[in-house]
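U., I forgot to send this yesterday:
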Amino acid sequence: MLTRFRALIATLLVVASFALASVAPAQTPNPVTPGYQICSSASGSTVCSWQPEFACTSSAVVNVSAAATTEIVALTASQSIRVCSFVISGDTAATVATFVRGTGSNCGTGTTSITGAMRLADEGNISLSASRGALFETTSGTALCLTAATGAVTGFVTYAKF
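Result:
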């Protein structure tokens, strides 16, 4: 009986190790730079990348008029903007805000949403913070802007550029 149990455990360990190897490819963490691994799956394959730890030591004020898009953090060539936290407040009961990225004045060129539309109910606010990493980020060489579809939006963001 004990021999069968040991054989069963050995078989389960082999199956589990095979399943794990097929889900996440082996990748050696960077021994010099502290950080974490991010994996995403698409079309049946898993892609992992090493993300160095970072601190969001910069902040910016959000002050966007109704029906406008305003630049919050200016672009830097070859760098992305990682947003670690934000607090936004609306001035009407139907304020809708969306973080976007782009180039040109107030992200007027190549404007792309990086969050969904967020409705701030009854002059309320939204406060989000990532405990590790970023909530979202722009692509390299684009600025961070906020579009206020209805109602004015105020607040702040904390961010880091990479």
